[in-house]
Amino acid sequence: MSASKIAQLPIIDVAPFLNDNPEDAEKRVAASAALHRACVEYGFFYLNLDAYVERSEPEELARLAKEFFGLPQEEKDKIALKNQDHARGYARLNENVTNGKADAHEGIDFYRPVENPDKSKPLWGENQWPAVPGFKEKYEVWVKKMKVLGTIIMRGMAAGLGLTESETQDLLNQVDESFWVMRVIGYPPLPSGHDGISCGAHKDYGCLTFLWADPTKSALQVFLRQPGAQETDSLGLPREQGEEEGIWINADPIPGCVVCNIGEMWEIWTDGLYKSTLHRVVHRGSNYRVSIPFFFEPNFDAFVRPLPGALRKKALDTAEKSKEGEPERKSVVYGEFLLAKVGNNFAEDGPRDRYSES
Ligand SMILES: O=C(O)CCC(=O)C(=O)O
Ligand SMILES: [Fe+2]
């Protein structure tokens, strides 16, 4: 298979999902089928949000982010992770680690607020907002919109899998109090001699990631599995993808779109029919890049298990009829899975690896 098999990930318009007009029914079916194909083939796609949000909205968020990242270090450290539960707050440049290597970015993490916060418990503290005027208000509007978008896309994916209404409801019940995460990331230009890997190769561990990024090109890269593809890298970077064969492609920002990728929970729900895909950030530009990933995750107490409807679809798609009903993937309680992933960051010092294999 040639490396040029795909020039760009598919673009799926959310417009038909925003209403239930009968005249849009056909478009909804087509968009759901496109979601299914994109999840089977790439685990990554673009969502066109022009019918849902004004382009100026995330641009304003990026402006606010730059205002914060431009503050003196001691100002930024006022909302440091260690003031809270070591998960919510600001991480300095190189504080996060992926694959044992420091990530060349700084960022602020926010999580779903919890009842009865207790910062002595992992993940159970309070969010820390920058003192930049308008920051909290504008980002809270974005969180609300991304949560609604999460449900919309989950519904579309359920349709793409051919789930029954009660199976769809069962799935939606697992995300209706999403333990979401929002990250605001700043990537400074790197000194010469740096390999450019600003965020090492990883899979997202949750459900759906909606990534808005500023127009910087050639930064986000996605690993496409292609058996037989030898050329794994044109930049002379290490083979971060282990033994798999494939190619790294750029997922450059497209105006009006977010990049969406599926996390490991979707691997469980579909028993591996959908695969969460490796990605990384290689920022070699001379500008300060900002990205804002929103992670739409299952409820903290969701019991995530292979969905009967997805097993049906898998058997159909893979002609493995004989295997129907025998899931290969283990079920997890999402909150337990998450704690195992990030719980080791619940320490005063030491590396903060959010994508470690648990
Ligand atoms: O900044 C980006 O483009 C991607 C960030 C990312 O993959 C993550 O935070 O999980
Ligand atoms: Fe990621």
Automatic annotation (TrEMBL):
Gene3D superfamilies: B-lactam Antibiotic, Isopenicillin N Synthase, Chain. Pfam families: 2OG-FeII_Oxy, DIOX_N. Keywords: Iron, Metal-binding, Oxidoreductase. It comes from the Eukaryota. InterPro entries: DIOX_N, IPNS-like_FE2OG_OXY, IPNS-like_sf, Iron_ascorbate_oxido_reductase, Oxoglu/Fe-dep_dioxygenase_dom. GO terms for molecular function: metal ion binding; oxidoreductase activity. Residues 178-298 form the Fe2OG dioxygenase domain. Belongs to the iron/ascorbate-dependent oxidoreductase family. This is Fe2OG dioxygenase domain-containing protein. It comes from Ephemerocybe angulata.
